[in-house]
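Hi, here's the filled form for the chain we discussed.

Project: internal
Contact: R.S.
Residues: 190
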Amino acid sequence: MDEPNSADSKLQALDKLPPGFKSYLLDYYQKASNVALTPKLFFETMPTTGGLKEPFLFLLGSTTVAILGVSLLSMHLFEFPIMLATSLASTFLVALVAKLLARSFGGKADFEATFRVYAYASCLNLLAWVPILGSLAWFYELYVTYIGLKKVHELSPAKTAITIVLTGILTAILLFVSLATTVMRHIFHF
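And the returned structure, exactly as it came back:
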């Protein structure tokens, strides 16, 4: 008897999914492949308007899988909801800081376009939980983000690089101050 083709059985499994979820998975796969394999082309053709829903759902998919992998690997599943919420909120903060910095260097894009870059580049987080490969993927994500920000903000290479570095530094400071404030409020009950 013939063995079923593995690719065929995967496609048949997709057919069993609800139509909306199947459509989401296929769209996600197509976009993630384009971001990872042809980032310049992806960001050249990426719409910079249309709302935040689509890029947010993409970000949610990437972040959920990445954090689930990290949670499973570290055996800290109870931290999953907090890590997910923090990561999603951080992406909004990073996009806001990047947009403000890029605009100070003459960048042209608004928050939505900037958020889209970070949301779509997040697909590289899918490898975050894999030792060594996760670190390499993080560096590649920085490169992909660089390509996206350079395109949407129409910045020079140097200004784009400075925007990314300063965004990382300022966001880290903001998150540290926020965390320190929360800890201090808890300790001193104010």
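Let me know if anything looks off before we file it.
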